Amino acid sequence: MNSLFPITPAHYLVLSALVFGIGVAGVLSRKNLFVVLMSLELALNAVNLSFITFSRVNGDVTGHVIVLFVVAIAAAEACVGLAIVIALYRLKETVDLDLFKSLKG
Amino acid sequence: MNTFPIELTALLPLWIVVGGALALLMLEAILGEEGRKAAPVLAGTLLVLAAGCVFHLLSLKGMPGPLFHGAVVVDLYSLTLEGICLLSALLTCVFSASYLRRERAVTGEYYALLLLAVSGMFTLVLASDFLTFFVGLELMSLAAYVLAGYLRVQERSTEAALKYFMLGVFASGFLLYGIALLYGASGVLRFPDLRHFLEQGRYSSPLVEAAAALLVVGLGFKAALVPFHGWAPDVYDGAPAPVAALLSTGVKTAAFGAFTRLFAEAFGLPGNWVPAFAVLAVLTMTLGNLGALGQESVKRMLAYSSVAHAGYLMVGLSAASLAPTDDLERAVAFYLLAYTLMTAGAFGWIAWAAGKGETGISFEDYRGLGLRSPWMGLMMALYMFSLAGMTPTAGFFGKYYLFKLALDHGLLGLVLVAVLNSFVSAYYYLRVVVSLYMKPAEGKETVLPSPPLDLRVAFLLCGLGVLAAGFLKFPF
Amino acid sequence: MNFVTLQTLLPLALAFLLAMAVPAAMFLLSALWGPRRDNEAKLSSYECGIQSKAVAGDARHHFNVKFYLIAMCFLVFDVEVVFLFPWAVLFQKMAWGGFLSMLAFLGVLAFGWFYLLKRGALEWE
C-alpha cells in the first residue's frame, strides 16, 4: 500500500509492550490499592492486544479465543481482588498499600 | 463425537471434584445449618472417591494419552501429580475440620473452595496446551487467594490474601505475555507442536528468547523462587495454618509439576538455560535457608523452608535439557510426594498445636512438649527429620533422586551447594526437635489436648508415609 | 502488510468528530437558550444511589457494601456471556456436541445465579 503512514503489526506490538510496561510500573509504584488493581488489569489487556495482533498475523483464530478466556478470567480476578480490598478496608479503614504491614520479618 | 466416553472416564476425578464443589455450595444454600455440618464429611468422601479413580486409572495397562484434541493429556505423570494434589487436599480437609470448629468459622463454602482449588490443580497438571495451562493455573489461584483470606476478620489472614493476590496476578501477567510471544513466534499452542516448531532450529529467535525469559519470571513468582519469593513467607505465615498446608503443598505441586512438563516437553530446553536455572536454584536454596535460620516462629520458619525446597527442586530442573524427560518427571514427582507428606504434616501439626487464634507458634511455645505429649511430639519430630533430609525418610530419598539426576549430567558444583544447604537447614529443623524434647518448659506446663480420631489418622498417614515412601514402588 | 492505513481510518475519524460535535452543540444551545431555575439539590453532583451533600449531609460517608456486591455479581455474569459469541458464530458447524457443551456452561452459570439468590446476595434489605 502506498499510503503515508502504513500501520504494521509492529506498531500494535510496540503499543502492547508499552501498555504492559505502564501496567507493571503502576503495580510497582502506586500506593492506592484501587490504582494497583487497575494497573494489573491494564497489563492483562495489553497482552490481549498482542494476542489479537499475532492472531491476525498468523491467520489463525486461536488467538481471539484466548483473548475471550483472558477477559473472563480477568473479570473473575477483578471480583476477587475487589472483595479482598473491601475486606481489608473494613478492618483498616484505608486503601494505602504502605499501611498494611502486620506481616514482616 | 464418538470419542466422548473415554473423555468422560479418563477425566472422572476432575468431574467428581467440580461436581462436588457445586454440590457443596448448594448444600449449604438450601439446607443451611444441616448442610454446613455435613460439608467436611462430604468433601472428604468426594476426595477419597476421586483418589480411588486416580488409583484405578494408574493401574490401567495403557494410558489414555492426549484428549480433547490435545488440550489435556492423561499419562502416568499427570495421574501421579493428581494423586499428590488429592493427598494434599485430603490432609487439608482433615486439618481444617477441627481448626475451623475451634475458630468458629465453619462454612460449606470453605470446602467448596477447597474442591475448586483441586479442580484447578487437576486442570493444570493435565494441561498439554497453553490455554488449558493458563485456565487451570488461574482456577487454582483464584480459589487459593480466597482461601488465604478466609478468616476475613483477622488482619493477618486478609493481608496475606492481598499479597498473594497482587503478586499472583502480576505473575499471571508475565506468564501470559510469555505465552503471547510464543504464540506469535510459532502460531501454535499445544506443547508437542511447539516442541516440533522449536526443533527446526528456531531457538534463537528473539521472540522465543523473550518469551522464555517471561515464562521463567512467571514460574519464579508462582513457585516462589528467589528473587521473586518475597510474598511466600508472608502468605504462608498469614494464612490459616491448614490453608498454608494446601498452598505450600498442593498448589505448589501442581504449579511445579506443570512447569516441569512445560519446560521439559514443550521447550526441550536448549543447553544455554542450564546456567540460568542453576543460578535460580542456588539463590533460592541459600536465601530460603538463611531466611529460615533467623525465625522465632515455627510457622514462618516452615514458610521459608518451603522456599528452600523449591530451590532443591530447581536443582533437578536445571538438568532438564540434559536428562531424559521420564527421569526428570519421576524425580520431580517423587520429591513433590515426599515434600507434601512432611510439609502438610508439619503445618497440620501447627494448626492443632497453636491453639485458638494461632497464638502458640514460636519455638518457645513448644518447649518440653514432646515429653508431655509424646505421640504428637514424635510425629512432629518425624516430619522435621524428613524435612532435614535424614535417612531413611522420604525427604532423604527425594533429595537423593533429584541430586543424583543433576550429578549424572555433570552438575557437580550445583549438587555440592545443594548438599551444603541441606546441612545448614538441619540446624533449624532440629531446633524444633530440641525445643520439643530437650528444653524444660518455663512457667506454664501446657499439655496439648488429644487430637480427634480423624486428625490422628492424618498425622499417622503423614508419619508412616514419610517413613515408607522411599521404599514404595513408584508408578513410573 | 495488509493492515489498516490512515486512509481507511478516515470514516472513523469523521464519525468521531460527529460524535464530539453533537453533544457539544447540545450543551452549547441549552446553555445559551435554556431556562435556568436552580436550587441547591439540583446543582449538586449526581452519584447513583447516594444522596448529595446538599440533601443528606457529607457525601463522603461509606458506600453501602451492597453496591460492591451487586457490582461484582454483575461484572462476572456480564463478562461470562462473552463465550456465547464465538459459539454462536460456529453454531452451525458444531451440531449437538457444541449445543450440549454450551448447555453445560450455561448450567454452571445458572447454578451460580441460583446460589446467589439462595444466599440472599441479591436482596437489597
Give a written overview of the molecule.
The complex is a heterotrimer of chains A (about 100), B (about 475) and C (about 120). With about 100 residues, chain A is mainly alpha-helical. Chain A has helices at about 10-30, 35-60, 60-90. In chain A, α2 packs antiparallel against α3. Chain B is about 75% helix and about 0% strand. In chain B, β1 and β2 (about 70-75) form a beta hairpin. Chain B is globular and about 70 Å long. By secondary structure, chain B is mainly alpha-helical. A two-stranded antiparallel sheet of chain B has the order 1-2. In chain B, α6 (about 130-150) packs antiparallel against α7 (about 155-185), α11 (about 240-265) runs parallel beside α13 (about 300-320) and α11 packs antiparallel against α14. Chain B has 19 helices and two strands. Chain B has one domain (about 5-470). Chain C has one domain (about 5-120): Methane Monooxygenase Hydroxylase, Chain G, domain 1, CATH 1.20.58. Chain C has about 120 residues and is an all-alpha fold. Helices cover about 65% and strands about 0% of the residues of chain C. Classes of the chains: A mainly alpha (about 100), B mainly alpha (about 475), C mainly alpha (about 120). Chains in contact: A-B, A-C, B-C. The interface between A and B is large, with 43 and 37 residues.
